[in-house]
Design brief:
Two copies of one chain form a homodimer. Chain A is of the alpha/beta class and about 425 residues long. Chain A has helices at about 20-25, 50-55, 65-70, 130-150, 170-185, 215-230, 275-285, 330-345, 380-395, 400-415; strands spanning about 10-15, 35-40, 40-45, 65, 75-80, 85, 90-95, 100, 105-110, 110-115, 165, 200-205, 230-235, 240-245, 245-250, 255-260, 265, 270, 295, 300, 305-310, 315, 360-365, 370-375, 375-380. Chain A is globular, with a radius of gyration of 22 Å.
């Protein structure tokens, strides 16, 4: 590392998600000495994590080794490591193992993590869905709940084994709720002898007055109808006031209700990943309430033109009034933009502010059900669903992964089976 | 459970591997009340575990949910549980969670586990390959070793990060050694910047005087040549005398050698799974040195015609002189045989002793290299390899899994990539 090759200009990207990876790829032919640092050796295609969580896909199908993706970029090295400290004066990062990494340009792209709004003790009872391990843990909990119900069918309903509560009605919550309802009502239908999985309750709780709040109201209504057709119970205008290992408390206007459940999934909020703290400490950068760093129009940290922040870690509101959402297209466009800024600066060219081009939004609910919002063009149903399938296959990294996911979707569509239903790493007797 | 449906004849199979699963499937239309108990909710296609361990396949590709496989057998229920005790008098099993399960016929098919021949402290330094978790742990160790070498290239060779030792030259050891050599010499070739993965040493150690000892000598020689062409260093007539976290000690005739290595994989021996102890305690059944239960010609335990033992847990030597090997075809044929015995007994028909029909043996070494032994017909090379591919695809449970594995094999063949290279569940800084 460290520009020993004489190229000199050391660019360090922290995080190999959408933002970091697309920045790195765009820098392939730019004469810099590029290092990509991640805690993991792989890129995850996060939009399909919910399918890993519900047994439709394997982690290997939606991940690619970062080294493999970047192997032909001779200016690029990949480092596995956990960045714990930023020295903005010395322009050096420090890793957990003590190594230090100097940079001329730093691109912070470490994304976000679950946000429990101060109730961090809810985390063990209500895992979120940000990593591959989160996904396999959710898969384990969901499948284990049905097993526990089969073992104790008389008390399965009262004890909450067949009640699944998803907190948060954004895209992740909607997708999870739809997939679990399909699992209960179709995939597992014939699998048990003492219980009928179709008696399961899948409850989606959203604090706003409709699901998919960022979408136009007619699409929210279409999404709600699709969810209800799948058997999901949708409750809006309701907040969760407590979560324990065997219950949730729901509160609305003047009401309070206790629901017995053993499976609560958290899709209600995210905050900046912990690297945001180290970066803010070092740069005195302003942050929003979710811990995201409020960036300049060119995605740099104020007074630090050598530090860029992109993706979920960045709060960018210059062209839009409100901050851009934490979705893959924003991260991808910001990653590419930063790569272009770096190239232009080296060439002495001027740089324009970042502008997000919203190409439209898609959210899926389940089998042949999705909603699409392209500004003037808004629609839902099977066509939106086919478009969702197509777009997600195209953005998936690696042709092999595309084929694998396509095969499993086709199979799932025909047989309603979900082939990746193994409970690995810690089947435990439910209690 | 417990024959409440009035059918009365309660058959309990413990273990959902090849033996237990094929017995269960064969009993689909036999009028018994069948329960299959396993600690896991899935069947594993063990012959391909080494490809999961070396990043070629995902666990989901070679596993199928037991409930899904047996969902249409209305006489069959699947129980997740750990059988800890057998009461042969009362004909009852006890599970770890306290539940008791009565049986009229018991089929023990719990398989085998690693055998360290009294050196159980070697286990943490030299994991074996019997479960999905073993496979992902081996994958983690192998990939992490290359990462550690990249981090510390100057000492990578001396410290043993690039030395991989496989103990045992049977089929599993040969397959693992070949796959790791391919990984180092081809798959990872362009991935690193500070080290050349091709400098890795893959060492296969076998105590006998040739690899694949059960095969005819010419095939052992062909396998050895193929391994050496892949870059594996093969040492026969050598035993391992010590294993530590950073070395192995090898001993031969009057010699002793210490080899620095961080990755030792154990493929040298297996013993009966722990359920064998419980069964032997309860029935006073005779056992061999590996803990396998020595069965009667009809695979029953002496003096217990109601208890069958099949697969790796059984020692059967009646027609052959020496015990049958612990391979899938033996377990499958024994599972089917036991199902037929149960059916014939219920019908009042006579029963013949079990006879193993050896349809031939296949072992693969790597890309276009395998050996085949069909008694008079013995051959090696590309034809044997294609036959190996075909047979393994055909025996894989589930059409979806066949397609997924086929796609990945084709991809691997063309690109030499191994797509399932994620280090999940515990990337740790190497030390």
């Amino acid at each position: 590392m460290g520009g020993a090759d004489g190229r000199g200009h050391r660019v360090v990207i922290v995080g190999g998600g959408f933002g970091g990876l697309y920045a790195a790829k765009r820098l392939a032919r730019v004469p810099v000495d590029l290092a990509l640092i991640d805690r993991r050796n792989f890129h995850v295609f996060q939009p399909l994590l919910y399918q890993v969580a519900t047994g439709g896909l394997s982690p290997g199908d939606i991940t690619s080794a970062l080294r493999w993706i970047l192997r032909r970029q001779r200016n690029t090295s990949v480092w596995l490591g956990d960045v714990t400290e930023v020295d903005a004066e010395a322009r050096t990062l420090r890793l957990a193992d003590g190594a230090s990494v100097p940079y001329d340009i730093l691109v912070a792209a470490t994304g976000s993590t679950q946000h429990y709004f101060g109730k961090d003790d809810w985390e063990s009872a209500a895992p979120g869905l940000k990593t591959v391990e989160d996904a396999t843990e959710i898969r384990r909990r969901v499948l284990t709940a049905f097993e526990a119900a089969e073992r104790n069918p008389d008390r399965a309903l009262e004890d909450g084994w067949l009640t699944f509560v998803i907190v948060g009605g954004g895209p992740t919550g909607v997708e999870l709720a739809g997939a679990i309802a399909e699992l209960a009502n179709h995939t597992l239908r014939a699998d048990f002898r003492s219980i009928d999985p179709r008696r399961a309750t899948v409850l989606l709780v959203e604090g706003a007055d409709r699901v998919l709040p960022p979408y136009p109201p007619p699409l929210s209504q279409a999404a709600r109808r699709s969810l209800e057709q799948l058997g999901v119970e949708v409750r809006t205008g309701i907040t969760v006031t407590d979560i324990g290992p065997d219950h949730v408390m729901l509160g609305g206007e003047g009401t309070s209700e206790k629901i017995a459940t053993r499976t609560v999934l958290w899709a209600a909020g995210v905050k900046a990943a912990s690297f945001g703290d180290a970066l803010a400490d070092a740069t005195k950068a302003p942050r929003d309430r979710a811990g995201r760093i409020i960036v300049e129009p060119d995605l740099t940290v104020p007074d630090h033109p050598e530090i860029f922040v992109i993706g979920d870690l960045a709060h960018f509101a210059h062209s839009t009034g409100e901050p851009l959402p934490g979705v893959a297209p924003v991260a991808i466009q910001q990653g590419r933009y930063v790569a272009d800024v770096i190239r232009r600066r080296l060439a002495g060219d001027t740089v324009r502010p970042f502008r997000y081009r919203n190409k439209g939004e898609l959210a899926t609910i389940g089998r042949a059900a999705a909603v699409a919002d392209f500004g003037r063009l808004r629609f839902s149903g099977a066509v939106a669903w086919l478009l969702w399938l197509f777009v997600h296959l195209m953005y998936l990294v690696g042709f092999e992964n595309r084929v694998l996911v396509f095969v499993q979707w086709a199979w799932n569509y025909v047989t309603r089976n979900r082939g990746a239903r193994l409970i690995a790493h810690g089947w435990r007797e439910p209690n």
